[in-house]
TrEMBL record:
Domain of life: Eukaryota
Lineage per the UniProt record: Eukaryota, Viridiplantae, Chlorophyta, core chlorophytes, Chlorodendrophyceae
Protein's name in the database: Flagellar outer dynein arm heavy chain beta
Keyword annotations of the record: ATP-binding, Cell projection, Cilium, Coiled coil, Cytoplasm, Cytoskeleton, Dynein, Flagellum, Microtubule, Motor protein, Nucleotide-binding
Domain Dynein heavy chain coiled coil stalk intervals: 53-334
GO MF terms held by the record: ATP binding; dynein intermediate chain binding; dynein light intermediate chain binding
Amino acid sequence: MAFVHQTTSQAAVRFRDMLRRHVYSTPKSFLELISLYKNLLAKKREELRANRERLESGVDKIAQASAQVADLQVNLKQEQIIVDEKKAQTDALIVNIGQEKAVVDEAVEAGREDEEACAKLAEEVSAFQEECARDLEAAEPIIAEAEAALNSLDKASLGELKSFGSPASEVVQVVSACMVLTAPGGKIPKDLSWNAGKKFMGNVDSFLKSLVNFDKDNIPLACVDKVEKDYISNPNFNADYIRSKSGAAAGLCAWVVNICKYFRIYQVVAPKRANLAEANRKLDAANKKLSGIRAKVKELQDRVTALEENLMKATEDKNAAMAQAEKTATKAKLA
């Protein structure tokens, strides 16, 4: 290699002498060194450029991240305020629902007492009704017999009765009993003779109509007492016996006896009816009060239901706000 380099140098001298031009020769290793240096310089410059760009990009990203973190911190504070508000609203609703439920429970408890009282009163009224129904049921055959007795009378038979000049004493007693039983205002007439009886019957149509429409529920007690004492107590004062004397008188006798029987039953039923009416009045008042309580309880229950629905929505809103705040906090940490 050295020989070649020396030979090249000698040829260069000769070339300069002949042509007056310089020619230089450089070892290949030196040229390769120069080439290596150039390549290494270019590579380092490229690495430096890349590092500088990466550094600039990182600085920009850090600045952007810092700005984002600042924005996230602001958003996080705002979202935390919303979370606190939602928590406060939820807590207030929980307290309100507890208070409303306490009011509802108190109203339900009070209503339960009224329910029990009303149920007990309803049982009493039902018992009264059944008792009155049984008593009136016992009176129905008696009324039917009295009506049948009146139905056996007609204008002809009453006209025949009225035409008697001197009837049997039992017939006179039947008409007298009618006069006493139907005495207006309980004023028993002093004259109970046959002539007074015929005047009492007057127009037979009107007389029969007055018996049909007779107010059997409001007979003066004195009239019934006298009829029972002075007439019905007589063994011969019965329709079967008197029928042999007069068919019309027998009908009037049966009517008088059955009306008195009815009156005695009605004496027992009337107070029960009054008690029943009073019990019904109390029951109506209790039912009205109970209806008001039930309406109030329903109103309170509806309010509690509405509050629970609001609580559910508020809880969902609170959870959503908390999730959003947590998401923002996570982003801020990652940034």
